[in-house]
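Problem: given the chain below (299 residues), write out its structure.
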Amino acid sequence: MSDLRELSVVRWRKYGKDRLYVTAPDERRMGWCDLATGVVTVDDDADRAAVEAAVAGWRAAVPEPAQQASPAPSTNAGVTVITESSVAAQEPVWNDLAERRAGQAAREQAIALKHAAPVRTFVARVLRVHTDERAWRIGADGEEMVAARLARLVKKDARWRALHAVPVGVNGSDIDHVVIGPGGVFTLNAKHHPGAKIWVAGTTFMVNGQKQPYLRNSRHEAARASRLLTAAAGVPVEAVGVVVPVGAADITIKKAPEGAHVVYRRAIGKWLERRPEVLDLEAIDRVFEAARRSTTWLG
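Solution.
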């Protein structure tokens, strides 16, 4: 049986269907579950136990939309008695985002699209046709390459922390990388454009002559992170947005970008390392502990 920790479980909702696809580490499809009926379908009966266990694990980890109200604390002669169990019941369940892999959200989308139309995906890959599946896959590759650079920084200076594929809100949005360290808090948006020419000036960001909203989006992403982390950590947090181009053949910064920074992938570690120190270790730990909780990012 495959190690359940290595299996990928992806939810796919489209055309009135709601399914979970279970994939092996080598991207081999093992099976899927119809969430409406609970029926599990497998390609190989030998995988059934692993697929059913992976589905059960997903159900246990993902809370249902409607949560039952926490039981009221007991009272005795007008005195409220708060027990350990009642406190635990009132604390929201959260997932540890430190366990998420770089590019996880984008990779899951690519796999779901591949499983939904395997033949069409195969033909598109052979013909090098630009599809949504390809865009998600290339995006995931870019995020993984940025994460590799961040890992070097963390290894060099343990005060730095990095979270990847941080889910925000309930509409499927995510922040590619949230980096916290002595230089502050940063939201990194990896943009993988192999062989492209990038031109930046003020509020304009162009890829092969086409304007892209990357600077605006990065600014909004950082502002949202600032608000959510401030509320969760209980201290003022000002996140800085950074667009990280990956794979570009040429990058020209005609004028300093406004609203966000633009730092090429190969330079991101050094750039972060050179930021003036604004957070001590206690503040870094406090913000990181808030950032790693999935419930922090629901607002």
